[in-house]
Design goal:
By secondary structure, the chain is of the alpha+beta class. The chain is built from 9 helices and 12 strands. Strands 1-2-4-3 form a 4-stranded antiparallel β-sheet, covered by helices on one side. Helix 3 packs antiparallel against helix 4 (133-149).
């Protein structure tokens, strides 16, 4: 939103430069607080004289942000009162809203799009300030649909309906195959071992070895239909990438052509998704002591 930096004017007066997005009322409040401040057209910023100018501006800015958030919360509270979301998944508290739903990947993805929404692990709920109410309303239909779909009774009905079906057998086969943590590779183009790479089936993984075992053609159609393999493909062994490894991994260059082969360098967007997943996985391990 803004910036302050200790500096000096042309005649070596101590002070700080201060910049913030233009708003007439904000500028008026700034001028009342700092009457000796002068606009510097070269820097496109205000020069505030004084040895502690930077600290004074930072304190003023913190008050401005607090007042802005309070005003936005009041507007959101009024919007909720005028047109409330009525749902068993939404709780209204004095100073914020809470979203409590069965676990759903869709709900998580939608809530991450709501500004200032935060997961409260102790309460097992998403907290949403009133200033984000309009954004929450825009995402609510998808959140509620996903919550209903993932109620225990609904999930049980789907399991019973699919029991013994071809779809269930295929899903079980894919789950079993994933637990084996193997992947078909081209023996002439093996990935770098010990480094995160992108795969089409399991996302970003770290390959740890390849013993040359030939790939069974019968498994390809059920679990690796989207992998461009050849008749001499061999199994490679992999493990999930750790958060530390993903943070150190450089993404593919922006604008570079993506070759959708057996493996490749991940893009920055793919790394961001993988880092969120790895961070969540490590938090779960920490909480369970595993």
């Amino acid at each position: 939103m803004s910036d302050s930096k200790e500096t000096s004017s042309g005649n070596d007066r101590p002070g700080a430069t201060a910049a913030f997005p233009y708003d007439r009322m904000t500028v008026e409040r700034f001028r009342r607080t700092f009457p000796r401040a002068r606009w510097n057209d070269d820097l496109k910023a205000w020069f505030v004289p004084g040895k502690i100018a930077a600290q004074r501006f930072d304190r003023w800015l913190q008050r401005e942000r607090s007042q802005t958030e309070t005003h936005a919360d009041l507007k959101g509270r009024d919007a909720f009162a005028f047109d409330p979301i009525v749902s068993k998944y939404l709780l209204r508290l004095d100073d914020h809203l809470e979203v409590v739903t069965p676990y759903s990947r869709t709900v998580v993805d939608e809530m991450r799009e709501v500004p200032f929404a935060a997961w409260d692990g102790d309460r097992r709920a998403w907290t949403v300030p009133y200033r984000s109410y309009d954004a929450l309303r825009r995402h609510w239909s998808r959140i509620e649909e996903a919550a209903i779909r993932n109620e225990p009774e609904q999930r049980k009905k789907r399991r019973e309906a699919s029991r013994g079906s071809e779809k269930e057998r295929a899903a079980r086969a894919r789950a079993t195959e994933r637990r084996r943590r193997r992947y078909p590779l081209d023996p002439e183009n093996l990935p770098p071992f010990g480094r995160p790479v992108m795969t089409s089936t399991y996302g970003v993984v770290v390959f740890v070895g390849c013993d040359g075992e030939p790939v069974d053609p019968e498994i390809i159609g059920t679990s690796y239909a989207d992998v461009p393999i050849s008749s001499d493909s061999v199994w490679g062994q992999w493990r999930p990438a750790t958060l530390a490894e993903l943070v150190k991994t450089w993404p593919s260059r922006p604008g570079s052509k993506i070759e959708h082969g057996i493996w490749r360098q991940p893009t920055i967007d793919e790394l961001r998704v993988a880092r969120k997943t790895a961070a969540s996985r490590e938090r779960q391990r920490s909480s369970t002591g595993a």
